[in-house]
Amino acid sequence: MERTAALSALRWGVRLAFAALGIGIVGALVRQVGAEALCQILRDAAPWLPLVVGLEAARIGTDALATYAAYGPAAGKCLPVRVLVRAALVARAVSSIAPAGRTAAEATKAALLAPWAGPAAATAAAATGQAVTLVSGGILSVPCAAAAYVISGASPITMALVLHAGLLITAGTGIRVAMRAPWLGAIAGRLSRRAGAHVHAMQARARETSLLPPGPIAAMLLGRVIQVAQYAILARAVGAATGVSRALVAEGASMVALAVGAFVPAQVGVSEGAFAWSADVLGATVPQALAIALLGHALEAFFVAVGALVPLLWRAPAPPDEQPEH
């Protein structure tokens, strides 16, 4: 009991330390560029925010579509659309505030959708969602790296994106391989009969789709493309250089920041640092680059509020009396 309490206190201490470090980085950057100049840029950019919010809503829709596709052929029979959309909105909020946000978001969706699809299908879809998020991020990192190379040559951001692409595609493919591998079920069976049965049921579901399922990957890639458009709009809003290449570099900087700051709540300070570090490649001044990152956080905060209100204002329908097996 004492050990559990100590571990819990340690986890919270680490999270608070990361949060304090991130806030400190933001404060230092704001002092460096000047709060007055930064506030003026943000005020000028405000009229563009409704468009960016609308695109983010569309991006959440692509995430729901990817989840739907990850459930395989039986998805249409077991998942009501309103239940899927509700889960996607709640998971979006979780992904913004929880450490390892994407993993936490997939776990949240699995918990919310399991009463309709069954635990095995929900677990398989959540693991697939994590895998295709990595694979789609790796795929998009390739044109991001190419754009960075065209603009800045073999710069640190270019090399970081090349490494990012390789690591994400490898990791995502590895998750899908493990989901289908006999040894995973054997290991779980040695731990307990119940765990073994659950893993075998999950693997049976995972084998219903291809190793790298094209539907979920395509949906996630569409969401990434929408995010590139968001960065192009934000660059225009703050007065920075615009264009496809610059927007791709901004998307790449965001993905690298997300990977580096996975355990920093909301990536506070990490994304600001990444954008300020990449300001030249983005075609922006440091205040403009910092403003793009801060506007991204404002967008995150808006959808955290939406996701927090959804369970209070949008009651989930009752699940079916006969739940799927496992």
TrEMBL record:
The chain crosses the membrane at residues 12-30, 131-151, 157-178, 255-277, 289-314. Keywords: Cell membrane, Membrane, Transmembrane, Transmembrane helix. It is found in: Cell membrane. It is a multi-pass membrane protein. It comes from the Bacteria. Signal peptide: none annotated. Its main location: membrane. GO terms for cellular component: plasma membrane. Pfam families: LPG_synthase_TM (PF03706). This is UPF0104 family protein. It comes from Polyangium fumosum. The lineage of its organism: Bacteria, Pseudomonadati, Myxococcota, Polyangia, Polyangiales.
